[in-house]
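agent> fetching stored inputs for the flavin-adenine dinucleotide docking request
agent> found them:
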Amino acid sequence: MIYTRKNKRELRYVWSSKTILLRHSYIHSHILRTLSSVLYHLYFSTSKRHSIIVSKTFTQFLIETITQLESNLKVLNIPLFIYTGDSGAHISQLIKEHEIDTVYLQKEWTRDENNILANVKAGIPSTIAFEETLDQFLFHPEDIPYPNFNAIPEVFTNFRKKCEKQISVLPCIRIDKILPKENLLKTNTEIPTLSHLNLEEFNTDTRSAFPFHGGENEALKRITHYFWETKKLAFYKKTRNGLVGNDYSSKLSPWLANGSISARTIYWEVKRFEKEVKKNQDTYWLIFELIWRDYFKYVSLKHQNSIFKIGGILDKEYDWHTTKIARKEWINGSTREPFVNANMKELANTGWMSNRGRQNVASFWAKELKQDWRIGAAYFESMLLDYDVHSNWGNWMYNSGVGNDPRDRKFNIARQADMYDGQGKFQRLWLQDSLF
Ligand SMILES: Cc1cc2nc3c(=O)[nH]c(=O)nc-3n(C[C@H](O)[C@H](O)[C@H](O)COP(=O)(O)OP(=O)(O)OC[C@H]3O[C@@H](n4cnc5c(N)ncnc54)[C@H](O)[C@@H]3O)c2cc1C
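agent> prediction call returned; pasting tokens
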């Protein structure tokens, strides 16, 4: 996989709104190890496949992420070209201007991402090589104990147990090679602001369970806090169903989703914690959840675009409704269920919702109201700070009875509220205004 041509620049095109795993990705370490001249390109996109709304909280997190990425790359003398709008046009211009012969990118497989790449390729000479790498997993796709993606089991436990037994997670490679100064070209591009993008400036909601900022350094800071300073990791399984506060769970998902940190980095940090501080069910459980993340990626590799179809991967037929008023009430948090309402208000105001909340509002939408589950998934896609195509659509299918839940469970919302918010603290936090 070496494409170096002396004195030629190589372009690493960073895909869509995803940023890069700066120090830990295979592509990045490979490029830095083998090439002497590199430029990075980022297509700044806030629009997502099924988005109903462009979220200002999501966009702000992305702006912060890219700001940090730009300055971290600068230290390595790597320029970051940032464009909004049509990525195809910008790429072909960059390729011409800088005599690029190879484009490196993370391999994506879902429909819209494939279409974007096809459009990009159509606009540039066929002599330009494209190097795509599957680079977002805990268990590397070449290591999984299955002959092909079609053999991925439909039940998570089967997948987890076999992988845990047979695969070693790859080590993290940290390369801090600094390129020559001449590599740091002037880009003449700028990171957009919220107002450039016609979004209003805002202050983070003081009630937010995710008051953090975007960027690799912030992700590492969060690990330092959650693992090493407070040792909350040692209690993770006991607290992970929480609803209020910053530390009931790791809160690493928004950084994971945009590539600021990798699942492998987190895995090896857990392992170090287990060696140096404590190893218990709680520490293991964070890895268990990271395996869920991988699982949904493999499910989507297996079933491809079926994850967006109404029958899901089971091709199930239900009598789905698309009632406008139900959608409005669910989104605004004015349904008959206060627990659902509190969670939906939290999402609208902060871009965050706990895992417990997500399961409940999804079950209520799809199984209680029997509304087309894809509308719910699309709304989450618009709003979530940690939106990840595979985790979102995979979990939505799971909770809507068209995915990988062998038990096809429906949540009793009132009972869930009693169990997880018995004192009503969470509901008061988000519903106070509407109560008085
Ligand atoms: C309907 C629905 C939609 C969801 N959409 C997304 C999404 O778009 N993006 C996303 O990252 N997660 C999604 N999740 C999964 C989960 O809710 C979040 O990953 C989790 O709440 C993030 O908080 P945390 O980082 O504190 O997680 P922790 O509890 O600290 O877990 C650590 C990591 O494990 C992974 N993880 C945990 N639970 C799950 C899960 N159920 N599925 C997949 N990975 C998991 C995440 O990467 C998470 O950061 C969704 C869940 C549901 C029920």
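agent> quick read of the result: The mean pLDDT is 87.
agent> awaiting further instructions
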